[in-house]
Write a structure and sequence with these properties.
With 363 residues, the chain is an alpha/beta fold. Helices cover 30% and strands 28% of the residues. It has a 7-stranded mixed beta sheet with strand order 13-12-11-14-15-17-16, with helices on both faces. Strands 4-5-3-6 form a 4-stranded antiparallel beta sheet. The chain is globular, with a radius of gyration of 22 Å. The N terminus is likely disordered. The structure holds S-adenosylmethionine.
């Protein structure tokens, strides 16, 4: 596409991009304006926003901390019944995926999770009805559909239906060609929520943050990995790592739960987590210290600068006056070290975000 400038010069332009985001209501509303100041945004329903991205801002890869899921070019559907909604979604799906040869996923969901505007049961019924139509009329797409939450391939497409009222939903298709712009905010998990199962064994519920980050990252702590867990007490993250067979040095001013203090693969070091430096690089840096974000980021800067870890997962507390400052500083830090990483408010994060990623070698 090209436009004629007043000078007579023909200048190529990037088309405007329509997106819808689902996430934390007030924080996401503010983050959209902060990240895309020249674009227009409006509320579709609590926690769901439509953004009409200015052409220049649309060219920037989106990486939002408070968006759990993103719908590319959302289109409104109105339908009085489950079967009508399924039928219309199916028609849209056929039309948009008819030339798509790779695998694809189907997500039917509502938002937000805690006060859903549509019963989750209705979403399951719509998904089942779409599945039935696929089985009857589209065996090719039925065969290429991915139903688990395994990591996405570069050739994969995602068809989403976001139900916002019993008679209204948005559908959206994300094609492999969209990945460069929205690859970091379109999640392979329905509604963008990585499924973490309850586990009564760790000594704290903080373990959920680490499991969620691992799922988003597509990397898991494995047997024989070497980990450092800063601010490890009472030991939720240390438990997960040791349980997988990894070796953990856990640093805190307070001790771990008794069984972890005696665990053969756990070494506890009492002291200031921010002063700890490993003797040699480790696989995973874990840090869940409750501290001002500047301290946690300075620590991550040191670790990445000295190439002390391969993978990192660090919790950052948010400051009330400017919750986006920590997010902006984190993005700058990831760029500085050319690390592949995300800063996101996970479902298990309260007044905090988590930065997780892999440290890449400099070329
Ligand atoms: C949120 S808790 C960590 C929970 C842990 N990740 C788990 O899964 O059980 C934060 C921990 O940071 C520790 N902490 C805070 N400041 C610290 C510091 N400067 N050095 C060491 N530990 C610190 C606290 O003692 C506390 O145990």
């Amino acid at each position: 596409m090209a436009t004629l400038q007043p000078s007579g010069e023909v200048k190529p332009t990037v088309p405007r991009l329509h997106l819808a985001f689902a996430g934390r209501d007030e924080l996401l509303a503010r983050e959209l304006v902060d990240a895309y100041p020249a674009s227009s945004h409006r509320t579709l329903s609590p926690g769901v926003f439509a953004s009409d991205l200015d052409a220049n801002e649309a060219a920037l890869p989106a990486n939002l901390a408070f968006a759990s899921q993103c719908l590319v070019r959302p289109t409104l559907l109105t339908a009085a019944s489950v079967s009508q909604l399924a039928r219309q979604s199916f028609d849209a799906l056929l039309d948009t995926l008819k030339h798509h040869e790779g695998s694809w996923r189907l997500h039917v969901f509502t938002h937000p999770d805690d006060t859903p505007p549509v019963s989750p049961r209705r979403c399951v019924l719509v998904e089942n009805a779409i599945e039935e139509l696929l089985h009857k009329k589209q065996r090719r797409l039925e065969r290429t559909r991915v139903k688990d939450s395994s990591p996405a391939t570069a050739e994969e497409a995602l068809f989403q239906v976001l139900a916002l009222a019993p008679d209204a939903a948005y559908w959206s298709v994300t094609l492999p060609s969209d990945a460069q712009v929205v690859g970091d905010v379109v999640s392979r998990f329905p509604a963008g929520i990585a499924p973490v199962h309850d586990d009564m064994r760790p000594p704290s519920r903080a373990y959920r943050k680490l499991l969620e980050a691992e799922l988003h990252l597509g990397e898991r702590i494995g047997a024989a990995d070497r980990c450092v867990d800063l601010g490890g007490s009472p030991g939720g993250w240390t438990f997960i790592a040791a349980d997988r067979g990894a070796h953990v040095v856990s640093v805190d001013r307070s001790p771990l739960r008794d069984d972890l203090m005696e665990h053969p693969r756990v070494v506890f070091e009492r002291g200031d987590a921010f002063r700890f430096v490993p003797e040699r690089p480790v696989d995973w840096l874990l840090c869940d210290v409750a501290a001002v974000p500047e301290r946690s980021l300075a620590m991550l800067d040191t670790w990445l600068g000295a190439r002390l870890c391969r993978v990192f997962c660090v919790t950052l507390k948010l400051k009330g006056d400017d919750p986006f400052a920590a997010v902006r500083d984190t993005r700058a830090l990831l760029m500085k070290h050319r690390a592949r990483g995300w800063v996101r408010q996970l479902a298990a994060n309260k007044n905090e975000v988590t930065v997780f990623g892999t440290a890449l070698r400099r070329v």
